[in-house]
Each structure stands twice: as structure tokens, then as C-alpha cells.
Amino acid sequence: MSSVAADRDVQVAVVDDTRAYVGFAQETETTNGTTNLTVTVTNRFPDGSTLTTAELTVDGESTVLVNGALEPGEPASGTVESVECGDPVTLLVSGDGVRIRLERAIDCN
């Protein structure tokens, strides 16, 4: 997270992707010199906090992971083909009064 705006006092704790309100996991698979990226997002907000959109962008190409409802505890996945290791990945997630933007690099390890 790089910026936050709030209408009242808030406390923020930075945690790794495995403990965040929006879980982010990536897997790469390389076959015949072509690397494909699969990203899974998980809604880890408390009950009653539905995520309604999640969009992944890699190298200018967007993939919709969620367009509807992702309830707490539910994962959603999507695959982007022909990516380069180290390229930037942007994930935009929103719903129920929240908007989150994650920026990561494609990890091929």
C-alpha cells in the first residue's frame, strides 16, 4: 500500500500477502519458453464485506478476476499467458466501501 485517505482517525498495520485483507498468490508455469501467470486473490475481510471487482493488469493487458461477488473466505483466480519474469503486476480490488491497489512483480522462482 502506498497511500491511504480516510474521513476519520485510522490505525494501519502493514502485513505480508498471506495475512492481508486481500490475499494475493501467484504461480508461474513455463512450457516451451512461454511463461504463464496464475494469480489467486482471496477475500479475507470480515463477514459482510463483499468484494465486487478484482482486475489484474500485466503489461497493459487486463484480466477480470471478479465481476460480481467475492464473499469473505472465497478465492478467485485468473491466468495471463506469455508474461515476462519480473514484469509489474497491478491488482485493483473494490467493494463495500473499500478500494485496494496492489503492485507486485512477476516472481518466477
Helical residues, percent: under 10%
Question: What class, by secondary structure content?
Answer: mainly beta
Number of helices: 0
List the uncertain runs.
Answer: none
Shape: elongated
Seen as an oligomer or otherwise, the chain set is: single chain
Going across the major beta sheet, what is the strand order? 4-3-6-7
Largest β sheet strand count, sense and barrel closure: 4 strands, antiparallel
The helix/strand series, from N terminus to C terminus, equals EEEEEEE
> What is the CA-based Rg, rounded?
15 Å
Indicate the proportion of strand residues.
over 45%
Per DSSP E runs of 2 or more residues, the count of β-strands stands at 7
State the end-to-end CA separation. Answer: 23 Å
Can you characterise this structure?
By secondary structure, the protein is an all-beta fold. 0% of the residues lie in helices and 58% in strands. It contains no helices and 7 strands. The chain has strands at 22-31, 34-43, 51-58, 61-70, 75-83, 88-95, 98-105. It has a 4-stranded antiparallel β-sheet with strand order 4-3-6-7, with no helix packed on it. The two termini are 23 Å apart.
Observed structural traits:
109 residues; mainly beta; four-stranded antiparallel sheet; 7 strands
Compose a concise summary of this entry.
This protein is an all-beta fold and 109 residues long. The chain has strands spanning 22-31, 34-43, 51-58, 61-70, 75-83, 88-95, 98-105. The model has no long low-confidence stretch (mean pLDDT 90).
